[in-house]
Amino acid sequence: MAEDLLTDDEQWEAIKVWIRENGIWMLGGVILAFALLYGYRFYQGHRNTQELNAAAQFGVMTAAVDANDRTAAKNTAAAIIKNYPSSPYADQAELMLARLAIDDGQDVNAIEKLSLVMNNSKDSQLRHIARLRVARVQIDQGKPDDAISTLAAAAPGKFEPRYHEVHGDALVAKKDVSGAIREYRAALAGSELRSADSAILELKIADLGATVNPPENKAKP
Hints:
Elements: H1 8-66, H2 70-83, H3 88-103, H4 107-120, H5 124-140, H6 144-152, H7 160-173, H8 177-188, H9 195-207
């Protein structure tokens, strides 16, 4: 090749010419690479700091709830939602505000908070929890049909036993005893229940005058 025929001095001169002609672009590329790296590290550091701050505020909020300082709990929850809206702790704060609203008898406010999580949370588990709580509030409001519609609007996934249980509660409110027993039995058959939850379901079935397992139909001779 032609480069192989150049002397060392000629090759060096050629390199210096290339650097003079292209060096500005090389320098720009290096600067851009450093800027991107710094920007990424700054973003990651800022994000980590935000998460830590949100977690700390969440701890303050739960401590206030445990101390029955409702005003401090509400104020801290509102601050988390305002300052860290993209953090998962914001969803938890909304759920906490909904719980406090229910305790205060403010069902409409509670449903508003729960609906925000139910419709917007990036965490599928929190969406299910919020939906189940919305349905329970609707049952308490004397709106079992609304509760059933709320449950039917989402695929329950691993929360299927919980959905069956709340559906059963709604049917009890509608005086549909057989339907409620059917839903409770379906909930009890779920694999995601704890022993305490199973005991509660068994009590609900017994209160309706039924057995946990449906009686077998014996064929007539």
